[in-house]
Amino acid sequence: MDTNLKEKEPLTNIPAGIFHGTEVFYIGTKAFALHEGIVTTFENLPSMIKQVFFRAFVKDKKAQHFFETELNITSIEVQFKQWLFCSFGALDSTPDYLDGKLIQDSFNSACKRKNCPGRGRLCGQASSLKDQDVATLQEIISGKSVKQIADTLHLSIPGTRSRINKLRDKLNAGNMAALAANAATIIGMVE
Fold first, then answer.
1. Among 8, 17, 174, which Cα is nearest to 92's?
2. 3-class state of residue 81 by DSSP
3. What is the pLDDT of residue 189?
């Protein structure tokens, strides 16, 4: 199936299979959407879809308060754009809007701010994944042993085991294989 993706550069890592629903993602500061298999700007989405996202933002008083107090953003329009980026900005293999439901990204790989106060509060709120968690999960996905992960991340072996156990709890994984599978799905496009 052709998805018109060739027209939008540098969109080379679009996940296959999103032919139903809407996936919002950012390239730099520009919002795009993969909607029913076609890439468009967020602004050019059907108004009904944009309204779903805006209504969810209006209900998210916690995010609005966070933007005002922590990031000093008072404009509703700017807050909405920031909320959209923080909550849905990553390009992953799960549509953000499907069958009448919004599904927030587990981790926003579009954001490169390592110490943002929104990490795990707005971005990655569903699983509260921090950058250190993502780094650990990437090592697990690559098939490394606990010792190799500890060496790569400059952690002790007990500290690495503790981090892995906490991630297993967060991601509801019974063993390392399940954790690796869940991590691959959640992280998806994180580089």
1. 17
2. helix
3. 37
Distance separating alpha carbons of residues 54 and 6, to the nearest angstrom: 29
> Do the Cβ atoms of 94 and 86 come closer than 8 Å?
no
15 falls in which pLDDT band (50, 70, 90)?
low
pTM, whole model, 2 decimals? 0.64
Residue 4: pLDDT above 70?
Answer: no
User: 């293999």: which residue's tokens?
Assistant: 93
Distances 81 to 24, 25, 162, 171, 190 between C-alpha atoms, Å: 12, 12, 36, 28, 21
Instruction: Tell me the mean pLDDT in the region 89-109.
Output: 80
Cross-strand bridge partners of residue 40: 33
Cβ atoms of 105 and 79 within 8 Å: the answer is no
